[in-house]
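Pipeline run #58 for the internal structure catalog. This entry was flagged by the ingest filter as a single-chain record with no existing model, so it goes straight to prediction. Upstream metadata was stripped on purpose; only the residue string is passed forward. Reviewer on rotation: M.T. Logging verbosity set to normal.
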Amino acid sequence: MTLYIDKASIFHLKQPIAVLTLLLLCSSAAYAQLPEPSPMITVVGTGTAEVAPDMAVVQLTVTREAETARAALDANSAAMTKVLASLRDEGIAERDLQTSNFSIQPKYVYPSKQSQSADRTPTIVGYTVRNGLTVRVRDLEKLGGIIDTSVTLGVNQGGNIAFTNDDPSDTIAEARKRAVIDARNKAETLAEAAGVSLGKIMQISEHSGRVSPMPIVQADMMASRAAAESVPVAAGESAYQVTVNLSYAISQ
């Protein structure tokens, strides 16, 4: 048996192979023309700057319990109204007062395990109303007195004082400078150890935030006070940290 293949058939059989070969050759040539990645030194620098806080954020909560939700809410509202009025009298602006975590919750009593009754349905015996208030105090000298007065007027939960700064931009800028200096010192050390020189900066990025523990005052507002004096507080310092990533070109 003899197999006959004409020239046109051979052309069509070879055409895909020829195209593939041509594409591979073009790709190899293009890859060969790509520039080699420039050698770089990449480092991470950290800078921290401290500043005395000029503002405090404090949580004040009024909790009241009663047999009915209405009674609990009325008692809670009466106490919170007095607290708000006192804060305004102390010069706290409306923008620095914010209601938070308001809730009305029933109080349940569950049947005893020793009960012979088949009914295990819990019974509502009262209601608890909580009204939280977030207060920004911009005059720290008033902070202790504000807490003391608020407890007298009905606040019985809260504390969690966080000291902060209204505008920390200057402090963050100083931390940023220190981070860059730290990064460059590390890069210079690496370059010297490797026997090369630093070129221009190729990439730079940063991350900033507060990382140091903030001074916190956690107070049990329900505890009796030993004396009619303002609550002692210590503001300490606020620390701000910036981390930068620098990539330097290596100059031979």
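catalog note: DSSP finds four helices and eight strands in the chain.
catalog note: The first strand starts at residue 40 and ends at 51.
status: ready for reviewer M.T.
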